[in-house]
Amino acid sequence: MNQAATPRGLSRIPAQQRTTVVLIALWLLLLLVTGIMHPSFWSASTFLAISFNMIVAGVVALGLSIVTISGALLDLSNATTVAIASVAVATVLRATDSTPLALLAGLAVGIIVGIINATLVVAVGVNPIVATLAVSFGGGGLLIVYAGGIQQTVPLDSALTAFGNQRWLGIPAALVIVIALIVLVELYLTRTRPGRHLVAVGGNPKAASTRGISVRRVRVLALLASGILAAIGGILLASQTSVLSTTPNAQLAYQTAAVVLLGGISLSGGRGQVTGLFASLLLLSTVPTAIVSFGLPSSWQIVLQGAAIFIAVCLDARRTRSLKK
Amino acid sequence: MIERAVMPRAARRWRARAASTAALTVAAAIAMTGCSSTPPSEQGDDDQVLIGFANITSGDPTLTAMEEVLKAQAEKRGWEVLILNNNLDGPTALKNADTMIARGVDYVIEFQVDSTVQPVIAEKFADAGIPEIVYDIPAPGAYFVGAPNAEAGRLAGVELGNYAKDTWECAPDLVILVEQATAGDPSTLRTNGVREGLLEICPDISEDIIVQRDGGASADTAQAAGRDILAAYPNAEKILAGGLNDTNVIGIINAATQLGRAGGLFAWGNDGSGLLSGTFPPELKGSVAYFIPGYPIYALDLIERLEAGEDVPVGDTPTSADAILVDACVISAEQAADVPNVEEQAKQLADAPTGTSAYELFCPTK
């Protein structure tokens, strides 16, 4: 970031951490203002609600961030993958009563979608946005054909449902899994050679290729990881919701895009930290809860998400221009 | 309002035969829409009533039951039925409308999801002089047959009110009403109905504790909305939940379970989809059902009146005084087990004397 344009206090913070610090500060400010105006906001229910809000959006945004950091722009098939994986889990669970089989079915959906996306983007050379959008429409259509638009139920007495409502040390067990995945991805990107290759490919694919890094391999792995993480999102959704829609949740796609972009992950690839993603997730998962406390209509949530994407894209463009200078 | 001039049956059939010179086009349309599950005799007899039914999709047991009831009850009257599949798709519904006009149907029953093409379809049938009956999604100039949204909501609200009165002396801490903004008027009518029913029994409940919000179109989106509402009222223990449908209300129950606050929750759904599925959480204490397999009974009664030459006024919106609203049935969770499944409902409705409604046959509280 351009030092001259950076406020004095922020300039002392390492450039990579500024987004995270700003987002955490905004989150604390939101908690403070809402809590002062509506003291009941500071309650165990609020923090539990925020925690549950973070689960599916968090794991899906994590997959999306890997794709974006690798320079493959966006994966727009994630919401569809979540829907198909959740329905696959529910179907297998009802048919076999076997949680391991149901989990495998859900993960298989993510792997298949990841392979299709990777084939279209890397082998065929289709623009990632177009390719994943096509997969999203195609997958959504197949889901309607399969389920006939009829909602799918998850057995209420299943181990999966018990896990979905379980808490470890007061935190939803599913969120612990999501946080663990976020930490693993952060370590992978910053501490391992393949992870650094992924960032390098996203930053400058030509330079990375010159250094002997296989750009194609990195992009395949990124799209595969995105598919698998979206499928885990579907599994976690099935663990928490007893009635599953067979229509992809478009709102989830906007929400995860907002989390990734506001988290400072650059659309031009190669830049962004998973800690920023977590801070962004925390902030955007708190907004809907605060909106209800203020008595605002739920449509404000969409307005604020749109504003977040707008601000994030503008800041990203500014940062990209600064780096080019 | 579209002017609807009913064309004599013979003239309509003649026109259909003329149209069949484009037989290849029609055949292609039929092949593409995929659909005739009951092929009536080619163009039918001039004197025999041919009813076209474009069903919302195929494969769902409830919709299959609806088709079986229509066929059986039409057969009892000596009428033929042509069934097409709208495949949850507006353009397919448009093609099916062309197909039905080309086949020379005398009456059309339209059941499809895309409200934007509904007026276009209505205009096509109006131009062809074919009376149209629509299920649940209104169309200009078409006879509306559907759920009694406001009344169904009111009945659910009365149940919530009765529980609040008997258990909490009409002093709940929180009332959660979830609607679905994208569903438009039916959602508003039904959810406002819940509020009216509740206040009918407990008029002193403060508006401050009634939270009416969009819960989206699925249980998980309603669940997220429910979590946020419960978080905004952390001290609420005596909680009532109602809304557009069972799916939304189950979302609220799931949210309360996640936050460990389902203990003081009393929920009453609407549409019966969750309650009669056999898989529902114990906090869902009941619902208001409309018995969708029984819709054809109302449509066929209307057609019978039209065939008799009666000038039946068109109620083309759910709020019109002339709209044909199915009877809503209040069912508690305990009574749900006594209501037959949709396959059995279809069988009993098919065997019943003409004009016997599902409400009369299956409603435990009639």
Contiguous helical run count of chain A: 14
Strand arrangement, major sheet of chain A? 1-4
Helix content of chain A: over 70%
Overall 3D form of chain B: elongated
- List the uncertain runs of chain B: 1-5, 21-38
Shape of chain A: globular
Number of DSSP strands of chain B?
Answer: 12
Which runs of chain A of at least 5 residues are low in confidence (pLDDT < 50)? none
Level of helix content of chain B?
40-55%
Order of helices and strands of chain A: HHHHHHEHEEHHHHEHHH
H/E order of the elements of chain B? HHEHEHEHEEHEHEHEHEEHEEHHH
Radius of gyration of chain A: 20 Å
Explain what this protein looks like in three dimensions.
- The complex is a heterodimer of chains A (325) and B (366).
- Chain A has 325 residues and is mostly helical.
- Helix content of chain A is 74%, strand content 2%.
- Chain A is built from 14 helices and four strands.
- In chain A, helix 3 (44-69) packs antiparallel against helix 11 (215-240).
- The longest helix of chain A has 26 residues, at 44-69.
- Chain B has 366 residues and is of the alpha/beta class.
- In chain B, helix 2 crosses helix 4 (90-102) and helix 8 (219-232) crosses helix 9 (246-258).
- The longest helix of chain B is centred in the middle third of the chain and has 20 residues, at 149-168.
- The relative contact order of chain B is 0.12.
- Classes of the chains: A mainly alpha (325), B alpha/beta (366).
- Chain A binds chain B through residues 38, 40-41, 43-46, 48-50, 52-53, 56, 144, 148-151, 153, 155-156, 164-165, 172, 237, 240-245, 247, 249, 251, 288-289, 291-293, 297-299, and chain B through 56-60, 88, 181, 211, 213-214, 216-221, 223-225, 227-235, 247, 250-251, 254-255, 257-261, 273-274, 277, 279, 281.
